[in-house]
Amino acid sequence: MTSLIETDVLIIGAGPSGLMAANELQRRNIDFVCLEKSPERSDLSKALGIQARALELFELMDLHKPFLERGYPGPGAKLYLGEGKPSTIDLYHIKSRYPYMLVLPQNETEEILEKHLNAMGGTIDREHEVVEVMQSENGVFVKAKHNGEWKSYMCKYLLACDGSKSGVRQALNVEFVGEDEGYTFFLGDVEIPDMSEIYIDMHLNDRGAAAFFPYKDGSYRVVGWDRTQQGQPFRDAPSLQELQESLDRILEEKSYRVGNPKWLSFFGTAHRQVENYRKGRVFFVGDAAHIHNPLGGQGMNLGLEDASNLGWKLEAVLKGYAKDSFLDSYHDERSPVATSVLRVTSKEMRMIDLKGAQGRLRNAAGRTVLTQDWVQQLIANHLAHIPKDYDKTSKNKALKDSSASRKAIQAGERVPDQMLFYDGSTDERLYPFIERYGHVCLIYIDCQDDELIEFAYSFTKKAEAEYPGLLKVFLVAKGGTVDTNGEDLPIIYDVHRHLDKSLGMKKGSTLLIRPDGHAAFHDTSADPDQTMEKLRQFFHS
User: Fold this and answer.
1) Position 487 confidence tier, pLDDT thresholds 50, 70, 90
2) What is the per-residue pLDDT for 375?
3) Contact between residue 79 and residue 91 where contact means Cβ atoms under 8 Å apart
4) How far is CA 397 from CA 321, 333, 412, 538, in A?
């Protein structure tokens, strides 16, 4: 046995969630070890849709460009409800710079994440099988097997990113609450010579359901549910002929000929979730915390968002800015998001299962409501995870400023990207500032106002004394000359009025933005002592 390996954070699992967490910690200079049982990355495509919010989080890590270069921006879906013409769901309604679903196989997502991690100096320790997990008040002890040898680890915190069958979850006797749904889907990555479609092509009728997702290389992912094949003994994969027969049954005369399969599979569906994403010093992330059926392509995205939410919070605690209890907000913020997705996808699956008169009613109602613009906006933004805010937690409710305007961004809400005038450029954006500085603090002075400028400097000095190196403070003016007596507070000009009209910032307001692009708080007091108290409340309540 080797000597004990000590680290701040131990990540178990190097799928998308584990790799996202590793990237977040590496870029924040947090000492970590990531253990993965498999000898190499899987070459299976698995999940294939990256939603807008995940792309925004990649941008906040300066990691979005490789995804955009390799992915296929799906503009929406054509939904055939029963017979007749399709209803179109357009994703340009998404309120983000990424108004589409990026189609990219999971193996390529993992490749991009791991290469980015390697470029920053981080590594994955592969062929490490975790066999024991024990925790105490001071840390978590882990024993792993590697090439026939035993290795021991001690960490301050452990992230269980080891999937739906999480060994960490089982070792700690954490219940995975929920049930199997009893549905079996077929899946294939295939070529379809007679199909040429940029939209996701979806069919739903009494015989089942089938969806075709276009890849960038011209091939397709086909996923379907064949009503006649339910309740049979589970098998790993259909043959190509069986896949074709299921498509023919579901689509009848509209069927397509498929060939040259890269991957064929069956999979069952379930909805399960741990009751608390935290147990002591262990945190459950991604599929280790929640699973649901594949409707909407949201599972992998939830895991990426989990890791993003937790990474900067671990940094705040490990660097002494916040107490350990600050990490409780990970469960408080992320669990309701997954609960909502599980609830909605379960209802959607029950709707898909309707047939006969109920199925015809579903189809007619669906065709009618999908003609409504507001319904299109609601569906598009829901799938993209854009409205998944954290403002309903008790902590963020307590940080809400009742004096702010009704449209003001409040604690826990996602902060949309905005156009700015900065350093001689009129087309700077807010997200690169967050990527560069982490916690970004905007103080709206409107124009030359000596009293507000003095407030900004006083707050900045107090914050730097108590939280050294944590915040980057910017003055925000609408225009004109702002004289700060040569002191070092950079000035952003809100010439587009985006910070005013979109974020609800007014003269004298302070907006602190978290590294994950959500608001820490919005304060209108223009009093350095009150704003400092709100900062302390954010990190220590």
Assistant:
1) low
2) 94
3) no
4) 21, 12, 8, 11
